[in-house]
Amino acid sequence: MLDDQRIRDDTPGIDGSRVFLDSAGSSLPPRPVLGTVTAHLHREAEVGGYRAAAERADDLGRVRSAVATLLNAPESSVALSDSATRSWLDFVTAVPLRPGQRVLISEVEYHSNAVHFLHRGIPFDVVPSDDSGALDPAALKRMLDDDVALVSLVHVPTNSGLINPVREVVELAHARGALVLLDACQSAGQVNLDVTELGVDGLTGTGRKWLRGPRGTGFLHVRPEIADRLTPAVLDGSGAEWTGEREIRPRADSGRFELWECDVAARLGLGAAVDYLLELGPERVEQAVRTRAARLRAGLSGIGGVSVRDPGRDRCGIVTFTVEGVGPDVVRAELARRDVTVTTSTRASTRIDMDRRDLAAVTRASPHYFVSDEEIDRAVGAVAEIAGER
User: Which of the residues bear the PTM N6-(pyridoxal phosphate)lysine (predicted)?
Assistant: First the structure.
């Protein structure tokens, strides 16, 4: 069991007047994260950035170790970055593609990922979903052949509480020699992740969402067995050694994907966020998030004119819905007027899935473990008011 009172006391953004349901966007950091970031910024103002960073060199090293512990991965397999998108791009651009090879994606692929494939002219095919809305492993098996270099798998989409299967996808892809990159930007921090069990070749995550870390932080895990097959598109003096006038030697591990310059305060804050989660217990956090989301879905489902839009048999902490006759942007604004924070997810963010389901936009609520039952019920009541006014 989580200590709910201690957690709420640790969260400055909770004052009893607002209901925060946007951890899928950018969550509320706990005091240890806030204190770590602000303290380092103050120290930089006192002695300069280089000296301040040198004083925290050991702590900076432990950030990578903490992320590795969270993922049950070797520390050498983790690279730190400024976002999940940067980490995803680092992996994809490092995969060697021979002429004629292509990529497979799911129907819930993120817009930034699809934009990259289209921008670079990388051919991709879309793996259909099954009747539940999750990626269909049987369809994937039919589509895999020797020309598939990579399966880009979104673990949890931005526009629903769906959780896609991972291990089955990995086994099918590996049997045909394809790599699997798991986009975990919406699952890291709310779903317990074990890369040893999942078997993915790459995994990307962000600090600002469910991990409750600072913006401008992210990480990449690369399975050690494939690291030497990947050639980063960008290298600097951190990722490679300048061994001669015309020679370099890239690092043998995932450190080749790191750049020397970073926001030191934010990176230390990411470490504090991961440590906080590890102390609470990822399994307990996942159960708490699922319980709160289930309560919210149940409450919304009981309101006339409200439709919960989450597909899938296995669902997480993202709850999406629409109100008949009221646009999602209006619902968001009306909830904000009632001090309930949610957001909207539009067709532009997950075009394939939203087109398939004929949805232009949905209202997205994402209750984290620090949200109380009373606050969830208050949010349900606010939606009922809006639905009743249509």
Answer: 209
Instruction: Indicate whether 179 and 77 sit together in one domain.
Output: yes
Give the span between the Cα atoms of 364 and 104, in whole angstroms: 27
Query: Per-residue pLDDT tens for 210-221?
Result: 999 999 999 999
Q: Take residue 193 and report the two structure tokens written for it.
A: 């992740």
| Range list of H helices, 144-263 | 167-175, 195-198
Task: Pick the last residue of a domain from 279, 304, 333.
Answer: 279
Q: What span, in angstroms and rounded, lies between the C-alpha atoms of 385 and 390?
A: 9
d(C-alpha 162, C-alpha 62), whole Å: 32
3-state SS string over 96-149? CCCCCCEEEEECCCCHHHHHHHHHHCCCEEEECECCCCCECHHHHHHHCCCCEE
* Three-state DSSP state, 269: helix
- More confident call, 252 vs 362: 362
**Same domain flag for 269 and 308:** no
Tokens of 225: 């067995």
What angle is formed at CA 257 by the lines to CA 175 and CA 268, rounded to 5 degrees?
Answer: 120
Beta bridge partners of 102: 148
For residue 137, the enclosing domain spans 32-279
- End-of-domain residue from the set 279, 299, 329: 279
Strand partners, 112: none
What is the Cα Rg of the chain in Å?
Answer: 21
Query: Do residues 190 and 286 make contact, with C-beta atoms less than 8 angstroms apart?
Result: yes
230 & 289 share domain: no
Whether the predicted pLDDT of 167 surpasses 90 = yes
H or E segment and range at residue 153: strand 148-154
User: Could you count the other beta carbons within 10 Å of the beta carbon of residue 246?
Assistant: 6
Whole-angstrom Cα distance, residue 218 to residue 274? 11
DSSP track, 187-211: TBTTB---HHHH--SEEEEESSSTT
Whether the per-residue pLDDT at 161 is higher than 80: the answer is yes
Residues 355-384 have a mean pLDDT of 98
Task: State the average pLDDT over residues 210-235.
Answer: 96
Query: Is the same domain home to 119 and 94?
Result: yes
Using pLDDT thresholds of 50, 70 and 90, give the confidence band for residue 16. Answer: confident
